[in-house]
Amino acid sequence: MPLKALMVDVDGVIIVPRRGGWAVDLEVDLGVSREVLAEHFFAIHWEDIVLGRAGLHERLTPVLAKIAPHLTSEALTAYWFAKDAQVDTRLLEDLATLRAAGVELHLATVQEPLRADYLWTRLGLRDRFDAMHYAADLGAKKSDPAFYAAVQARTGFAPAELALIDDTAANLDVARACGWGGAHWTGETRLPDLLAALI
User: What's phi and psi for 189, nearest 5 deg?
Assistant: First the structure.
């Protein structure tokens, strides 16, 4: 069955990882330690936020009031989103060629709503993709078969008509177990070569 829609991961695929991570200069720039932020915010609250059970500002604001009272949740998220927004232009060009050939392009990503909207609107990914499917909206991450079932239900495509490009091998294992095609993205192989075995 021919490939009808390609699901593309965001972080590590469309978004090129920043050396050291988005928070590498956080303490110098905004006066809050990334280790303290990780301990008090991400380790405790991120699972609920990314699965849509809580809002980002709802959980981040009281944490910052304790660990960095000089900093607002809005300021930190604006910094975070901007620092974590370097796109792989070569990949986007290859994807545009694939889309022009009739294959739908969708984003499949683990995001909460605010960053999902930033990626879709501010970065303009809505102009390059047909849809975005993200964890907080679906209530499941890509490590969960429910994510793939929800995408199939939304799009109407059969599993054999779908493929996932992802930089996390474990996600690809789940996608393949759901009947999808899958290709591991390392950034070292051009998209046409990566997809040659799928199409």
Answer: -120, 135
Closest to 109 measured CA to CA, from 142, 144, 152, 146: 142
Handedness of CA 189, 192, 193, 197 (dihedral sign): positive
Helix (H) or strand (E) holding 131: strand 131-134
φ, ψ at 11 (rounded to 5°): -70, 120
Place of tokens 């392009």: 105
Indicate the number of domains in the chain: 2
Here the CATH number for the domain that contains residue 168 is 3.40.50.1000
| Residues of the domain holding 40 | 26-83
- Cα distance between residue 10 and residue 129, in whole Å: 12
d(CA 15, CA 119): 10
- pLDDT tens digits, residue range 59-90? 999 999 999 999 999 999 999 999 999 999 99
